[in-house]
Write a structure and sequence with these properties.
- The structure is a single chain.
- By secondary structure, this protein is of the alpha/beta class.
- It has a single domain (25-50, 73-215), classed as P-loop containing nucleotide triphosphate hydrolases (Rossmann fold, 3-Layer(aba) Sandwich).
- The protein is 31% helix and 29% strand.
- The strands form two sheets. It has a six-stranded mixed β-sheet with strand order 7-8-9-3-10-11, with helices on both faces. The chain has a five-stranded antiparallel β-sheet with strand order 2-1-4-5-6, covered by helices on one side.
- A hairpin with a 2-residue loop joins strand 5 (63-67) and strand 6 (70-71).
- Helix 2 packs parallel to helix 4 and helix 4 runs parallel beside helix 5.
- The protein is globular, with a radius of gyration of 17 Å.
- It starts with a strand and ends with a strand.
- The chain binds adenosine-5'-triphosphate and magnesium ion (MG).
């Protein structure tokens, strides 16, 4: 479970998020929508520990993870998987190395198995030895999903993971996300601009606007 209390983020004297309250119970799906520049990516970065709050507290499984001006629990210790808006694979690592990087705490054989299983689930087992620049945009998205899913994180943050993919691939990967989070009882925070994606995911729909997170009345 992740909780945010009175969470705020400002940059250069400009308030991006203010007084934000959010509880993400284990195994639940929360869809975050809202206009471009509203702070959706910023919110995910705060939850992951990649950005530092200006005020308020983030707790992960009851432990204080971030407070104003400091990060107490490092991103790698939060049991959080992140699919970035850009995909953001490490360009100097093969697909296999990209996945194994997040599995370094496991014994080698188990890490290898998890890596292969995740690539199988995302239907790209043949890409393990390629580098990201040798993949199509859609293949990169599959690998980014596989990388986030492989460690079986308790929480998964996805930032528009399917934007700019064709309709068939979007639908296939969305089903894959739904199946995987249900199978592992993973909490999911999913950012999208797409109402249809939000409906397919189900869960609680929120809208981020003017720095505040509110129930999405338009859904
Ligand atoms: N480190 C930073 N320095 C300066 N401005 C920032 C920084 N991080 C975010 N911002 C600003 O904060 C605002 C929110 O950005 P964010 O990326 O969270 O928006 P978003 O809701 O994800 O938008 P989009 O839907 O376009 O992805 C933007 O105006 C952005 O320029
Ligand atoms: Mg964004």
């Amino acid at each position: 479970m992740i909780t945010c209390s009175a969470l705020a983020f400002s940059v250069g004297g400009r308030s991006i998020l203010s007084d934000l309250e959010l509880t993400i119970p284990d195994g639940e799906c929360i869809v975050v929508m809202g206009p471009s520049g509203a702070g959706k990516t910023t919110l995910l970065r705060l939850l992951a520990g990649l950005a530092v709050p200006s005020a308020g507290t983030i707790r992960v499984n009851g432990d204080v993870a971030s407070t104003a001006g400091s990060v107490q629990i490092a991103p790698s210790r939060r049991d959080i998987g992140f699919v970035f808006q850009s995909g953001a694979l490490w360009p100097h690592m093969t697909v296999a190395q990209n996945l194994l990087y997040g599995l370094a705490d496991l014994p080698r054989a188990e890490a290898q198995q998890r890596m292969r299983d995740a690539l199988d689930v995302c239907r790209v087992p043949e890409l393990a030895m390629r580098f990201p620049q040798q993949l199509s945009g859609g293949e990169q998205r599959r690998v980014a999903l596989a990388r986030a899913l492989a460690p079986h994180p308790r929480h998964l943050l996805m930032d528009e993971p399917l934007t700019s993919l064709d309709a068939d691939l979007r639908s296939e990967l969305l089903q894959l996300v739904c199946r995987t989070v249900q199978a592992h009882d993973t909490a999911l925070v999913y950012v999208t601009h797409d109402e249809a994606e939000a409906r397919t995911l189900g869960g609680r729909q929120m809208r981020l606007e003017h720095g505040h997170l509110l129930p999405n009345g338009r859904a």
